[in-house]
Each structure stands twice: as C-alpha cells, then as structure tokens.
C-alpha cells in the first residue's frame, strides 16, 4: 500500500505547477491501472504496512475511488478552461482521494474514524469554492453538522471498544462479540446511517448535491455514500448480537422511506435533485440488505454500492452537460433534448436503464441479491420491495422521457453535438458498469 501512498503524496506538489491539470488526471488513471493488476494475491488484509492494508472489501472501493476521481477532472473541464483556481481544485481532489484511500485501507478503527471525518473537509471546500449558487453556504453547513453530530457518538464508542478489548484492530476484533449494549450499538452505527444516508436523516444529501459542482456531486454519489456502507460492513463483524435484536428497525425505516423517496422523485422538476433523491432510495435498499446480515445481503449490497457509484456519477455528468448548454437544471426547460442533442440521448437511455437495474448492468446483480436476502429475512417486506422496484423504474423512465421528449423550451430547434471529452467521460462510466457483471463471482469472493 505504501507505494500508492508515496505516489499520491508526490502528486501534491505537481498540482501547483502551471498546466498540471491533465497531467494529474493521467497519473490518477495510471495509478488505478497499477492498483487493478495488483489483485493477483489478494487475501484478508494484504499489503499490510503499519496501520494500513487492503482486503477484498476495500479493493473494489479503492479502485472505484481512483476511477471516479480521474473522471472528476474530465467532467470539470470548465474549471480548467476558465482558470477558476484550477490548481487549488486539483489539490482538493487529490487530498480527497488520498483521504478516501486511507479510509478504505485502515486496519485500525480509530484510523478509520480519523480519515472518515477528514474526507468531509475537501468535500466541503469543493461545494463552497466551486458551487453555483449562494445557497451553497447553507448546503455546506447542513453537510458539516449532520455528519459531525452523528460522528461524535462513534468516537466515544471506539474508545469504549479500546477499553473493553484493549485493541482497535479490525482483524483482532473479528473474534470479539460485544454484548447487548444498546447505546454502544447505536453510537457505532448512527454515523454510518447518516452518511449513507438513511431516510429521516437524508436531508443534507439533496441540498449538498444541488449546490455542489459536477465534481462534488460525482464524488458524493460515487464514493462518499459508500463510506457508510463500508463502515457498517466492518462494524457488524462484532455487533452481531445487538444486530440480530435491533436491525429490524432500520430495515423497516429504509424500505418505507425508499418508497416515499421514490414518490418524491416522481414530482421533482430539478434534474440534480431527482438523481440525488434516487440515490437515497437506492441506498435504502443497500442498507436493508446489509442489516439482514446474510451472505446474499452483504454481497448484494457490496455489488450495488459499486454499481450505484458508477451509474449515479454518470447521471450527474449528463445533468451537468445539459446544464452547461441551457444554463438551467429545470426539467421544464431541459425537455426536448432529443432535438437539441440527439447524440446524447443514447447515453441518457443507457444510464437511466442502469438506474432502474436493467440487464446487463451490475445494478441488476446487486438488486437480485438484495431482494433475495430481504425477502428471506421476512416475507412481509415483499410489499414494500415490490413498490420500490416499480417506482424505481417509474422515476427512471420519468427522468428519461421528460428530459428527452417534447418541444425544446426556446421554441427554436437548434443542434448541438457533445465534445469527444464528454462522450469519453460517459463511456468510462458505462463500460465498467456493464463489464463488471461478467466478473460477478468476484463480488462474492471476499466473504
């Protein structure tokens, strides 16, 4: 792991050189390919050095972090072309990527907590520094306070674990089962429920997405929501006794909340808000699958986290491409895109179908596994799951039909072709999403 950390650290000074924007992006893609071929002998906590190591759960999420951060540069070309503090922007993305990799590769709970919180700072600066509207200040405060307030009990819980078991290493805690302690159970998982986000503590997410620049939205949807799922995957190894007793609360809230959020999606007129709310609905089903603590549930939630990271990020890129042309995110103005940008309609269709878990996307694999696990946990959940699956397809079709069909708002038909950069950006989101299902057994290996 140390070789990746050193290469990342040496990229920080490069970010302040003149015209280093594309150099850093190419280096990140190079790093992702080096990391990809390093899988040959991956076992439980491989590449161990001091407090850092990578195992099967971390591997996919670190690779996704490299990939999405490389694509963030490609999507934010406007920052570079307008010279809008582009060096500082590059530095922020690098810092965020570094924190995320450290988070996913931590072997100590305290180190995990430290970097989990530190990843919030560059995200906040991305929203405040390169957001579009004055409301970004309020969105930043929402993001900060929701996350920080929920994380303080986690810190207390970590210190309690240290006192109880005299270790903070994930690998040593695997054999320790903490007894039925309600406060400890709640304090250890609440921070992750907010980060996912679970219904009822989700209000910060649509606000943050709507005010964030495209790079902020991509990293929020692609990686930061996955931090919650990753934290729960790690914590439930020693919270099983409490989990069996109390998890039904969170599953119930997530499934009912997922249906309600899907209904909210159906009346959104803001492109970004619609995609953001759809993330809440998808994370609801991921959370439910995780909470069942079954093999199907854990592998399904891991698959869907990877799939959602690529699919949702791609949809935000599409929304931004339309926004840059029209100057508005409203569906009332962004309609008739089939006349305006016909070459992009195919990408809208492919990514919207991915969002509703159509084959052959990785979303389908994740959702089938999650449906299996949740229905096996309780057949009553079939009612909400059927609604969730139906509305998931409904709002994805609504997003596609309303944005692509109808008359162009301005009344005059004019034609715009996307640039090669934009098509490459969308291809690099869509291709892994559909090719990864060919390697679906890989998602099942880590348990």
UniProtKB/TrEMBL annotation:
Keyword list, A-Z: Electron transport, Membrane, Mitochondrion, NAD, Respiratory chain, Translocase, Transmembrane, Transmembrane helix, Transport, Ubiquinone
EC number: 7.1.1.2
An individual GO BP term: ATP synthesis coupled electron transport
Organism the protein comes from: Bironella derooki
InterPro entries to which the protein is assigned, alphabetical: NADH4_N, NADH_UbQ_OxRdtase, ND/Mrp_TM
Protein name per Swiss-Prot or TrEMBL: NADH-ubiquinone oxidoreductase chain 4
NADH:ubiquinone oxidoreductase chain 4 N-terminal domain residues: 1-103
TM annotation in the entry: 21-44, 50-73, 85-104, 110-132, 139-162, 182-205, 217-236, 248-266, 273-296, 302-323, 344-362, 374-400, 412-431
Location relative to the cell: Mitochondrion membrane
Catalysed reaction equations from the record: a ubiquinone + NADH + 5 H(+)(in) = a ubiquinol + NAD(+) + 4 H(+)(out)
Protein family: Belongs to the complex I subunit 4 family.
Pfam families reported in the protein's UniProt record: Oxidored_q5_N (PF01059), Proton_antipo_M (PF00361)
GO molecular function list: NADH dehydrogenase (ubiquinone) activity; NADH dehydrogenase activity; ubiquinone binding
A Gene Ontology term for the protein's cellular component: mitochondrial membrane
């Amino acid at each position: 792991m140390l070789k990746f950390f050193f290469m990342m650290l040496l990229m920080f000074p490069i970010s302040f050189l003149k015209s280093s924007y594309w150099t850093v992006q190419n280096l990140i893609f190079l790093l992702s390919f080096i990391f990809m071929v390093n899988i040959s002998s991956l076992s439980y906590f491989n590449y161990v050095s001091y407090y850092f190591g990578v195992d099967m759960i971390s591997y996919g999420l670190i690779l996704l972090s490299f990939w999405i951060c490389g694509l963030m540069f490609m999507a934010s070309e406007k920052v570079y072309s307008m010279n809008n503090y582009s060096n500082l922007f590059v530095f922020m993305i690098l810092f965020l990527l570094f924190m995320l990799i450290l988070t996913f590769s931590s072997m100590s709970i305290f180190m995990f907590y430290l970097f989990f919180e530190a990843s919030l700072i560059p995200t906040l600066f991305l929203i405040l520094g390169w957001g579009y509207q004055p409301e970004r200040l309020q969105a930043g405060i929402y993001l900060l306070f929701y996350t920080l307030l929920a994380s303080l009990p986690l810190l207390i819980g970590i210190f309690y674990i240290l006192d109880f078991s005299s270790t903070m290493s994930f690998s040593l805690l695997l054999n320790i089962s903490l007894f039925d302690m309600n406060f400890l159970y709640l304090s250890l998982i609440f921070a992750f429920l907010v980060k996912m986000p679970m219904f009822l503590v989700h209000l910060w997410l649509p606000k943050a997405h709507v005010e964030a620049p495209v790079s902020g939205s991509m990293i929020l949807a692609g990686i930061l929501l996955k931090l919650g799922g990753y934290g729960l995957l790690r914590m439930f190894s020693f919270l099983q006794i409490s989990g069996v007793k109390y998890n039904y609360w969170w599953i119930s809230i997530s499934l009912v909340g997922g249906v309600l959020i899907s209904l909210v999606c159906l009346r959104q007129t803001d492109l970004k808000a619609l995609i953001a709310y759809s993330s809440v609905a998808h994370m609801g089903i991921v959370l439910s699958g995780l909470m069942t603590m079954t093999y199907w549930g854990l592998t399904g939630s891991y698959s869907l986290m990877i799939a959602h990271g690529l699919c949702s990020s791609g949809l935000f890129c599409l929304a931004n491409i339309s926004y840059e042309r029209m100057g508005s995110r409203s569906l009332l103005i962004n309609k008739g895109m089939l006349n305006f940008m016909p070459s992009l309609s195919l990408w809208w269709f492919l990514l919207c179908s991915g969002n509703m878990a159509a084959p052959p996307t990785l979303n389908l694999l994740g959702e089938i596994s999650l449906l299996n696990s949740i229905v096996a946990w309780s057949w009553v959940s079939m009612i909400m799951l059927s609604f969730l699956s139906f509305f998931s397809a409904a709002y994805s079709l609504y997003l596609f039909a309303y944005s692509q069909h109808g008359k162009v708002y301005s009344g005059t038909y004019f034609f715009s072709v996307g640039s090669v950069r934009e098509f490459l950006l969308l291809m690099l989101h869509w291709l892994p999403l559909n090719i990864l299902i060919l390697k679906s057994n890989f998602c099942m290996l880590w348990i």
